[in-house]
UniProtKB/TrEMBL annotation:
Transmembrane segments: none annotated. PANTHER family: 6-PHOSPHO-BETA-GLUCOSIDASE, GLYCOSYL HYDROLASE. This is Glycoside hydrolase family 1 protein. Keywords: Hydrolase. It comes from Candidatus Enterococcus moelleringii. It comes from the Bacteria. It holds the Pfam family Glyco_hydro_1. One of its GO terms (molecular function) is hydrolase activity. Belongs to the glycosyl hydrolase 1 family. The keyword Transcription regulation does not apply. The keyword Translocase does not apply.
Length: 479
Protein backbone atom coordinates (compact mmCIF):
# COMPACT_ATOMS: atom_id res chain seq x y z
CA UNK A 1 0.00 0.00 0.00
CA UNK A 2 1.06 3.57 -0.61
CA UNK A 3 2.59 5.51 2.25
CA UNK A 4 0.62 8.55 1.10
CA UNK A 5 -2.59 8.97 3.12
CA UNK A 6 -6.03 8.44 1.63
CA UNK A 7 -7.33 11.73 0.27
CA UNK A 8 -3.82 13.09 -0.37
CA UNK A 9 -4.11 16.20 -2.54
CA UNK A 10 -2.16 15.54 -5.74
CA UNK A 11 -2.23 18.36 -8.26
CA UNK A 12 -0.27 21.19 -9.79
CA UNK A 13 0.41 24.90 -9.41
CA UNK A 14 0.50 28.07 -11.53
CA UNK A 15 0.30 31.84 -11.00
CA UNK A 16 -1.95 34.35 -12.76
CA UNK A 17 0.87 36.58 -13.99
CA UNK A 18 2.72 33.64 -15.51
CA UNK A 19 -0.16 31.93 -17.33
CA UNK A 20 -3.17 34.16 -17.90
CA UNK A 21 -2.10 36.88 -20.34
CA UNK A 22 -5.01 39.17 -21.34
CA UNK A 23 -3.20 41.81 -19.35
CA UNK A 24 -5.56 44.70 -20.12
CA UNK A 25 -8.81 42.83 -20.78
CA UNK A 26 -12.16 43.63 -19.13
CA UNK A 27 -10.91 46.19 -16.64
CA UNK A 28 -7.66 44.57 -15.55
CA UNK A 29 -5.05 47.08 -14.37
CA UNK A 30 -1.27 47.02 -14.71
CA UNK A 31 0.49 44.75 -12.23
CA UNK A 32 4.14 44.79 -11.18
CA UNK A 33 4.75 41.73 -13.38
CA UNK A 34 3.39 43.61 -16.41
CA UNK A 35 6.35 46.01 -16.34
CA UNK A 36 8.99 43.25 -16.32
CA UNK A 37 10.63 42.52 -19.65
CA UNK A 38 11.43 39.13 -21.13
CA UNK A 39 14.83 37.70 -20.37
CA UNK A 40 17.16 34.79 -20.92
CA UNK A 41 19.55 32.63 -18.96
CA UNK A 42 22.31 35.19 -19.59
CA UNK A 43 20.28 38.38 -19.13
CA UNK A 44 17.66 38.62 -16.44
CA UNK A 45 14.51 40.69 -16.59
CA UNK A 46 14.47 44.47 -16.35
CA UNK A 47 11.94 46.77 -14.73
CA UNK A 48 10.50 49.40 -17.08
CA UNK A 49 8.02 51.59 -15.18
CA UNK A 50 7.22 53.26 -18.52
CA UNK A 51 6.35 50.59 -21.10
CA UNK A 52 8.78 50.65 -24.03
CA UNK A 53 7.58 50.16 -27.59
CA UNK A 54 9.08 47.08 -29.22
CA UNK A 55 10.02 45.52 -25.86
CA UNK A 56 8.76 42.03 -25.00
CA UNK A 57 6.73 41.78 -21.79
CA UNK A 58 6.00 38.06 -21.33
CA UNK A 59 3.11 38.45 -18.86
CA UNK A 60 1.05 40.41 -21.40
CA UNK A 61 0.17 37.21 -23.24
CA UNK A 62 1.84 34.54 -21.08
CA UNK A 63 0.34 31.22 -22.27
CA UNK A 64 -3.14 32.57 -23.05
CA UNK A 65 -4.71 30.69 -20.12
CA UNK A 66 -7.33 33.43 -19.73
CA UNK A 67 -8.94 32.18 -22.93
CA UNK A 68 -7.98 28.52 -22.65
CA UNK A 69 -8.56 27.73 -18.96
CA UNK A 70 -11.29 25.19 -19.73
CA UNK A 71 -8.96 23.26 -22.02
CA UNK A 72 -6.17 23.42 -19.43
CA UNK A 73 -8.33 22.34 -16.51
CA UNK A 74 -9.67 19.45 -18.60
CA UNK A 75 -6.07 18.33 -19.12
CA UNK A 76 -5.44 18.61 -15.37
CA UNK A 77 -8.52 16.48 -14.79
CA UNK A 78 -7.24 13.92 -17.31
CA UNK A 79 -4.12 13.60 -15.17
CA UNK A 80 -6.38 13.06 -12.16
CA UNK A 81 -5.69 16.27 -10.22
CA UNK A 82 -7.33 16.43 -6.81
CA UNK A 83 -6.29 20.06 -6.31
CA UNK A 84 -5.23 22.95 -8.52
CA UNK A 85 -3.26 25.78 -6.97
CA UNK A 86 -3.67 29.06 -8.84
CA UNK A 87 -3.65 32.74 -7.96
CA UNK A 88 -6.09 35.56 -8.46
CA UNK A 89 -4.71 38.65 -10.15
CA UNK A 90 -5.31 41.53 -7.74
CA UNK A 91 -5.53 43.91 -10.72
CA UNK A 92 -8.45 41.99 -12.21
CA UNK A 93 -10.45 42.72 -9.06
CA UNK A 94 -9.13 46.21 -8.21
CA UNK A 95 -7.35 47.81 -11.15
CA UNK A 96 -5.19 50.19 -9.08
CA UNK A 97 -5.84 48.62 -5.70
CA UNK A 98 -7.69 51.69 -4.43
CA UNK A 99 -11.09 51.40 -6.10
CA UNK A 100 -14.06 51.18 -3.73
CA UNK A 101 -15.99 48.77 -5.95
CA UNK A 102 -14.49 45.54 -7.30
CA UNK A 103 -14.43 44.79 -11.01
CA UNK A 104 -17.33 42.41 -11.67
CA UNK A 105 -15.78 41.09 -14.90
CA UNK A 106 -12.71 39.93 -12.98
CA UNK A 107 -14.80 38.25 -10.29
CA UNK A 108 -16.89 36.50 -12.94
CA UNK A 109 -13.76 35.18 -14.65
CA UNK A 110 -12.62 33.47 -11.46
CA UNK A 111 -16.16 32.22 -10.86
CA UNK A 112 -15.76 30.36 -14.15
CA UNK A 113 -12.29 29.03 -13.29
CA UNK A 114 -13.45 27.79 -9.88
CA UNK A 115 -16.63 26.26 -11.31
CA UNK A 116 -14.61 24.49 -14.00
CA UNK A 117 -12.36 22.99 -11.33
CA UNK A 118 -15.33 21.83 -9.26
CA UNK A 119 -17.00 20.34 -12.34
CA UNK A 120 -13.99 18.05 -12.70
CA UNK A 121 -13.77 17.25 -8.99
CA UNK A 122 -10.68 19.43 -8.49
CA UNK A 123 -10.29 21.37 -5.23
CA UNK A 124 -9.26 25.01 -5.83
CA UNK A 125 -6.29 26.20 -3.76
CA UNK A 126 -6.11 29.97 -4.21
CA UNK A 127 -3.16 32.28 -3.59
CA UNK A 128 -4.52 35.75 -2.89
CA UNK A 129 -1.31 37.62 -3.79
CA UNK A 130 1.31 35.98 -6.01
CA UNK A 131 3.89 38.54 -7.20
CA UNK A 132 1.35 40.64 -9.16
CA UNK A 133 0.18 43.48 -6.92
CA UNK A 134 -1.14 46.61 -8.69
CA UNK A 135 1.73 48.66 -10.07
CA UNK A 136 -0.22 51.79 -9.13
CA UNK A 137 0.46 50.94 -5.47
CA UNK A 138 4.18 50.68 -6.15
CA UNK A 139 4.19 53.98 -8.06
CA UNK A 140 2.20 55.84 -5.40
CA UNK A 141 3.35 54.24 -2.13
CA UNK A 142 6.46 52.21 -3.07
CA UNK A 143 4.43 49.10 -2.38
CA UNK A 144 4.19 47.59 1.08
CA UNK A 145 6.48 50.23 2.56
CA UNK A 146 3.26 52.20 3.18
CA UNK A 147 0.98 50.91 5.94
CA UNK A 148 -2.10 51.90 3.93
CA UNK A 149 -1.67 48.74 1.87
CA UNK A 150 -2.80 46.63 4.82
CA UNK A 151 -6.36 47.93 4.54
CA UNK A 152 -6.33 47.75 0.74
CA UNK A 153 -5.22 44.11 0.83
CA UNK A 154 -7.74 43.15 3.51
CA UNK A 155 -10.56 44.76 1.49
CA UNK A 156 -9.42 42.77 -1.55
CA UNK A 157 -9.26 39.53 0.48
CA UNK A 158 -12.70 40.17 1.96
CA UNK A 159 -14.21 40.45 -1.52
CA UNK A 160 -12.71 37.07 -2.46
CA UNK A 161 -13.70 35.36 0.80
CA UNK A 162 -17.31 36.46 0.44
CA UNK A 163 -17.59 35.89 -3.31
CA UNK A 164 -16.27 32.33 -3.31
CA UNK A 165 -17.69 31.14 0.01
CA UNK A 166 -18.95 27.60 -0.29
CA UNK A 167 -16.80 26.90 -3.37
CA UNK A 168 -13.24 27.30 -2.08
CA UNK A 169 -11.78 25.76 1.06
CA UNK A 170 -8.03 26.33 0.80
CA UNK A 171 -6.41 29.78 0.66
CA UNK A 172 -2.85 31.18 0.85
CA UNK A 173 -2.36 34.82 1.82
CA UNK A 174 0.98 35.57 0.09
CA UNK A 175 3.32 33.64 -2.18
CA UNK A 176 6.87 33.07 -0.91
CA UNK A 177 6.49 35.89 1.59
CA UNK A 178 10.02 35.29 2.87
CA UNK A 179 11.53 36.31 -0.48
CA UNK A 180 11.29 39.86 0.87
CA UNK A 181 14.00 38.94 3.38
CA UNK A 182 16.37 38.93 0.36
CA UNK A 183 17.38 42.00 -1.69
CA UNK A 184 16.10 40.53 -4.97
CA UNK A 185 12.69 40.06 -3.36
CA UNK A 186 12.03 43.81 -3.43
CA UNK A 187 9.73 44.07 -6.42
CA UNK A 188 8.33 40.58 -6.66
CA UNK A 189 7.10 40.34 -3.07
CA UNK A 190 7.06 43.76 -1.44
CA UNK A 191 6.41 45.87 -4.54
CA UNK A 192 9.41 48.10 -3.80
CA UNK A 193 11.43 49.82 -6.52
CA UNK A 194 14.49 51.59 -5.14
CA UNK A 195 15.75 52.77 -8.53
CA UNK A 196 14.29 53.55 -11.96
CA UNK A 197 14.90 51.24 -14.94
CA UNK A 198 17.15 48.53 -13.55
CA UNK A 199 18.08 44.88 -13.52
CA UNK A 200 15.24 42.98 -11.85
CA UNK A 201 17.60 40.90 -9.73
CA UNK A 202 20.03 43.69 -8.83
CA UNK A 203 18.12 46.51 -7.18
CA UNK A 204 19.52 49.05 -4.77
CA UNK A 205 18.78 47.44 -1.41
CA UNK A 206 17.46 49.27 1.65
CA UNK A 207 16.91 46.62 4.37
CA UNK A 208 14.84 48.96 6.52
CA UNK A 209 12.27 49.34 3.75
CA UNK A 210 12.16 45.62 3.01
CA UNK A 211 11.52 44.57 6.58
CA UNK A 212 9.07 47.37 7.26
CA UNK A 213 7.15 46.29 4.16
CA UNK A 214 7.29 42.70 5.39
CA UNK A 215 5.84 43.72 8.76
CA UNK A 216 2.89 45.31 6.98
CA UNK A 217 2.38 42.07 5.05
CA UNK A 218 2.45 40.04 8.28
CA UNK A 219 -0.26 42.25 9.75
CA UNK A 220 -2.30 42.08 6.54
CA UNK A 221 -2.01 38.29 6.43
CA UNK A 222 -3.04 37.93 10.07
CA UNK A 223 -6.02 40.23 9.56
CA UNK A 224 -7.04 38.26 6.48
CA UNK A 225 -6.85 34.98 8.40
CA UNK A 226 -9.13 36.33 11.13
CA UNK A 227 -11.53 37.82 8.60
CA UNK A 228 -11.64 34.64 6.52
CA UNK A 229 -12.45 32.51 9.55
CA UNK A 230 -15.22 34.94 10.53
CA UNK A 231 -16.74 34.73 7.04
CA UNK A 232 -16.50 30.92 6.78
CA UNK A 233 -15.37 28.74 9.66
CA UNK A 234 -14.52 26.01 7.16
CA UNK A 235 -11.86 28.10 5.45
CA UNK A 236 -8.33 26.73 5.74
CA UNK A 237 -5.94 29.66 5.34
CA UNK A 238 -2.23 29.04 5.08
CA UNK A 239 1.14 30.71 4.60
CA UNK A 240 3.53 30.05 1.74
CA UNK A 241 7.32 30.33 1.95
CA UNK A 242 10.21 29.63 -0.36
CA UNK A 243 12.25 26.96 1.38
CA UNK A 244 15.98 27.62 1.46
CA UNK A 245 17.37 24.40 2.88
CA UNK A 246 21.09 24.76 3.40
CA UNK A 247 23.98 22.88 4.94
CA UNK A 248 27.35 23.91 6.37
CA UNK A 249 29.92 23.65 3.56
CA UNK A 250 32.45 22.27 6.06
CA UNK A 251 32.25 20.94 9.65
CA UNK A 252 33.99 24.07 10.93
CA UNK A 253 32.01 25.71 13.77
CA UNK A 254 32.08 28.99 11.82
CA UNK A 255 30.31 27.39 8.83
CA UNK A 256 27.83 25.62 11.10
CA UNK A 257 26.92 28.92 12.77
CA UNK A 258 26.73 30.70 9.41
CA UNK A 259 24.32 28.05 8.21
CA UNK A 260 22.19 28.30 11.33
CA UNK A 261 21.87 32.07 10.94
CA UNK A 262 21.02 31.73 7.26
CA UNK A 263 18.29 29.18 7.97
CA UNK A 264 16.87 31.30 10.77
CA UNK A 265 16.36 34.39 8.65
CA UNK A 266 15.49 32.70 5.34
CA UNK A 267 13.05 30.08 6.66
CA UNK A 268 12.14 30.43 10.33
CA UNK A 269 11.72 34.20 10.60
CA UNK A 270 8.54 34.40 8.51
CA UNK A 271 7.31 30.99 9.56
CA UNK A 272 7.55 31.82 13.26
CA UNK A 273 5.54 35.03 12.83
CA UNK A 274 2.81 33.46 10.69
CA UNK A 275 2.53 30.15 12.57
CA UNK A 276 3.54 31.06 16.11
CA UNK A 277 2.21 34.59 15.98
CA UNK A 278 5.23 36.56 17.18
CA UNK A 279 8.64 37.80 16.06
CA UNK A 280 11.34 35.26 17.00
CA UNK A 281 14.01 36.26 19.50
CA UNK A 282 16.87 35.69 17.05
CA UNK A 283 15.57 38.45 14.77
CA UNK A 284 16.51 41.27 17.13
CA UNK A 285 20.26 40.84 16.73
CA UNK A 286 19.86 40.75 12.95
CA UNK A 287 17.84 43.96 13.10
CA UNK A 288 20.42 45.63 15.36
CA UNK A 289 23.33 44.67 13.11
CA UNK A 290 21.55 45.87 9.97
CA UNK A 291 20.11 49.11 11.38
CA UNK A 292 16.53 47.91 11.05
CA UNK A 293 13.86 49.29 13.36
CA UNK A 294 10.36 47.90 12.76
CA UNK A 295 7.69 50.56 13.24
CA UNK A 296 4.60 49.03 14.82
CA UNK A 297 1.41 50.60 16.06
CA UNK A 298 -0.59 49.58 19.10
CA UNK A 299 -2.39 46.32 18.47
CA UNK A 300 -0.02 44.90 15.86
CA UNK A 301 1.37 42.24 18.17
CA UNK A 302 -2.14 41.13 19.16
CA UNK A 303 -3.17 40.91 15.51
CA UNK A 304 -0.17 38.69 14.73
CA UNK A 305 -0.92 36.47 17.74
CA UNK A 306 -4.58 36.05 16.80
CA UNK A 307 -4.11 35.62 13.06
CA UNK A 308 -1.96 32.50 12.85
CA UNK A 309 -2.36 30.21 9.85
CA UNK A 310 -4.04 26.80 9.68
CA UNK A 311 -1.41 25.07 7.57
CA UNK A 312 2.07 25.70 6.18
CA UNK A 313 3.00 25.45 2.51
CA UNK A 314 6.29 25.98 0.77
CA UNK A 315 8.22 25.75 -2.47
CA UNK A 316 11.24 23.50 -2.76
CA UNK A 317 13.55 23.32 -5.76
CA UNK A 318 17.12 23.20 -4.55
CA UNK A 319 19.46 23.49 -1.58
CA UNK A 320 22.62 25.43 -0.78
CA UNK A 321 25.71 25.41 1.38
CA UNK A 322 26.77 28.18 3.73
CA UNK A 323 30.30 29.17 4.58
CA UNK A 324 32.35 32.08 5.84
CA UNK A 325 34.74 31.66 2.89
CA UNK A 326 33.92 34.53 0.46
CA UNK A 327 35.55 32.78 -2.50
CA UNK A 328 33.27 29.76 -2.09
CA UNK A 329 30.20 31.98 -1.77
CA UNK A 330 31.11 33.78 -4.98
CA UNK A 331 30.80 30.47 -6.83
CA UNK A 332 27.16 30.02 -5.75
CA UNK A 333 23.98 30.80 -7.69
CA UNK A 334 21.62 33.76 -7.70
CA UNK A 335 20.01 32.82 -4.38
CA UNK A 336 23.26 32.98 -2.48
CA UNK A 337 25.17 30.24 -0.72
CA UNK A 338 27.92 28.02 -2.05
CA UNK A 339 27.57 25.03 -4.40
CA UNK A 340 27.42 21.59 -2.82
CA UNK A 341 30.23 19.34 -4.18
CA UNK A 342 28.00 16.26 -3.74
CA UNK A 343 25.15 17.44 -5.96
CA UNK A 344 24.52 17.85 -9.68
CA UNK A 345 22.81 20.93 -11.14
CA UNK A 346 20.30 21.70 -13.88
CA UNK A 347 20.94 23.99 -16.87
CA UNK A 348 20.29 27.07 -14.73
CA UNK A 349 22.69 26.11 -11.94
CA UNK A 350 20.04 24.91 -9.48
CA UNK A 351 21.41 21.87 -7.66
CA UNK A 352 19.17 18.82 -7.41
CA UNK A 353 18.72 17.55 -3.86
CA UNK A 354 15.63 15.41 -3.08
CA UNK A 355 17.03 14.52 0.35
CA UNK A 356 16.89 18.23 1.13
CA UNK A 357 13.10 18.07 0.75
CA UNK A 358 12.86 15.29 3.33
CA UNK A 359 15.12 17.34 5.60
CA UNK A 360 12.92 20.42 5.12
CA UNK A 361 9.67 18.56 5.77
CA UNK A 362 10.99 17.09 9.00
CA UNK A 363 12.45 20.37 10.18
CA UNK A 364 9.30 22.38 9.45
CA UNK A 365 6.91 19.84 10.95
CA UNK A 366 9.03 19.36 14.06
CA UNK A 367 9.00 23.13 14.56
CA UNK A 368 5.32 23.91 13.91
CA UNK A 369 3.24 20.70 14.17
CA UNK A 370 0.59 21.82 11.67
CA UNK A 371 -0.34 20.23 8.30
CA UNK A 372 2.15 20.80 5.47
CA UNK A 373 1.86 21.02 1.69
CA UNK A 374 4.60 21.17 -0.91
CA UNK A 375 2.97 23.63 -3.32
CA UNK A 376 5.92 24.20 -5.67
CA UNK A 377 8.56 21.75 -6.84
CA UNK A 378 9.82 20.88 -10.27
CA UNK A 379 12.55 20.94 -12.87
CA UNK A 380 13.04 23.80 -15.29
CA UNK A 381 14.50 22.36 -18.50
CA UNK A 382 14.83 22.93 -22.25
CA UNK A 383 12.38 20.45 -23.72
CA UNK A 384 12.74 19.17 -27.29
CA UNK A 385 9.78 18.32 -29.51
CA UNK A 386 10.79 15.24 -31.53
CA UNK A 387 9.99 14.74 -35.22
CA UNK A 388 7.00 12.58 -34.29
CA UNK A 389 5.69 15.27 -31.93
CA UNK A 390 6.63 13.48 -28.72
CA UNK A 391 8.41 15.15 -25.79
CA UNK A 392 10.45 12.63 -23.87
CA UNK A 393 11.19 14.45 -20.62
CA UNK A 394 12.63 11.52 -18.65
CA UNK A 395 14.81 14.02 -16.75
CA UNK A 396 11.67 15.68 -15.36
CA UNK A 397 10.12 12.35 -14.41
CA UNK A 398 13.34 11.36 -12.64
CA UNK A 399 13.49 14.65 -10.73
CA UNK A 400 9.88 14.52 -9.53
CA UNK A 401 10.07 10.77 -8.80
CA UNK A 402 13.01 11.34 -6.46
CA UNK A 403 11.19 14.15 -4.68
CA UNK A 404 8.00 12.09 -4.29
CA UNK A 405 10.10 9.32 -2.78
CA UNK A 406 11.60 11.86 -0.38
CA UNK A 407 8.09 12.98 0.60
CA UNK A 408 7.14 9.36 1.23
CA UNK A 409 10.12 8.97 3.55
CA UNK A 410 9.09 12.14 5.40
CA UNK A 411 5.58 10.76 5.87
CA UNK A 412 7.10 7.59 7.34
CA UNK A 413 9.18 9.88 9.57
CA UNK A 414 5.88 11.16 11.01
CA UNK A 415 5.32 14.34 8.97
CA UNK A 416 1.68 15.33 8.38
CA UNK A 417 1.93 16.06 4.65
CA UNK A 418 -1.47 16.62 3.00
CA UNK A 419 -0.69 17.66 -0.58
CA UNK A 420 1.73 18.12 -3.45
CA UNK A 421 1.32 20.55 -6.36
CA UNK A 422 4.35 20.57 -8.69
CA UNK A 423 5.13 23.98 -10.13
CA UNK A 424 4.23 24.86 -13.67
CA UNK A 425 2.12 21.77 -14.25
CA UNK A 426 1.65 23.41 -17.65
CA UNK A 427 4.53 25.34 -19.27
CA UNK A 428 4.52 28.98 -18.20
CA UNK A 429 6.70 32.08 -18.09
CA UNK A 430 9.63 31.60 -15.70
CA UNK A 431 9.57 34.17 -12.91
CA UNK A 432 13.33 34.35 -12.37
CA UNK A 433 14.32 34.88 -16.01
CA UNK A 434 11.16 35.81 -17.91
CA UNK A 435 11.69 32.86 -20.26
CA UNK A 436 9.48 30.27 -21.89
CA UNK A 437 12.54 28.15 -22.70
CA UNK A 438 12.80 27.21 -19.04
CA UNK A 439 9.91 24.74 -19.02
CA UNK A 440 8.43 22.96 -16.02
CA UNK A 441 5.18 21.49 -17.26
CA UNK A 442 3.66 18.09 -17.87
CA UNK A 443 1.92 19.93 -20.72
CA UNK A 444 3.91 21.62 -23.48
CA UNK A 445 2.76 25.04 -24.70
CA UNK A 446 3.78 26.24 -28.16
CA UNK A 447 5.04 29.64 -27.04
CA UNK A 448 8.62 30.89 -27.34
CA UNK A 449 10.90 33.65 -26.09
CA UNK A 450 10.68 35.58 -29.36
CA UNK A 451 6.91 35.85 -28.97
CA UNK A 452 6.11 33.22 -31.60
CA UNK A 453 3.92 30.16 -31.21
CA UNK A 454 0.23 29.34 -31.49
CA UNK A 455 -0.31 28.47 -27.80
CA UNK A 456 -1.36 24.91 -28.67
CA UNK A 457 -1.02 22.31 -25.93
CA UNK A 458 0.72 18.93 -26.12
CA UNK A 459 1.05 16.16 -23.54
CA UNK A 460 4.63 15.28 -22.57
CA UNK A 461 5.79 11.83 -21.48
CA UNK A 462 5.65 13.11 -17.89
CA UNK A 463 1.91 13.78 -18.33
CA UNK A 464 1.15 10.08 -18.57
CA UNK A 465 3.63 9.20 -15.85
CA UNK A 466 2.12 11.69 -13.36
CA UNK A 467 -1.36 10.40 -14.23
CA UNK A 468 -0.23 6.94 -13.10
CA UNK A 469 1.31 8.36 -9.93
CA UNK A 470 -2.00 9.98 -8.97
CA UNK A 471 -4.05 6.88 -9.89
CA UNK A 472 -1.93 4.78 -7.52
CA UNK A 473 -1.71 7.48 -4.81
CA UNK A 474 2.05 7.63 -5.20
CA UNK A 475 2.64 3.88 -5.06
CA UNK A 476 3.67 3.41 -8.70
CA UNK A 477 6.61 5.64 -9.62
CA UNK A 478 8.35 3.71 -12.39
CA UNK A 479 8.61 5.31 -15.83
Amino acid sequence: MSVFPKGFLWGGATAANQVEGAWQVEGKGVSISDICTGGSYKQNKRITPVLEEGTFYPSHDAINHYYRFKEDIALFAEMGFKVYRFSIAWTRIFSTGEELTPNEAGLEFYDQVIDECLKHGIEPLITISHFEMPFALTAKYNGWVERKLIDLYVRYAEVLFKRYKGKVKYWLTFNEINSATMPQGNLQEAGIINKGTIDYMNQVDIPQLRFQALHHQFVASAKAVQLGHAIDENYQIGCMLANFTSYPLTPSPEDVLANQKAMQMSNHFCGDIQVRGAYPSFAQRYFDENNIAIKKIEGDDEILANGTVDYYTFSYYTSFCQTTDPEELAAGNVFGGAPNPYLKANDWGWQIDPSGLRFALNEIYDRYQIPLMVVENGLGAKDVVEADGSINDDYRIDYIKQHIEAMGEAILDGVNLIGYTPWGCIDLVSLSTGEMAKRYGFIYVDRHDDGTGDFSRKRKKSFYWYKKVIETNGEELSM
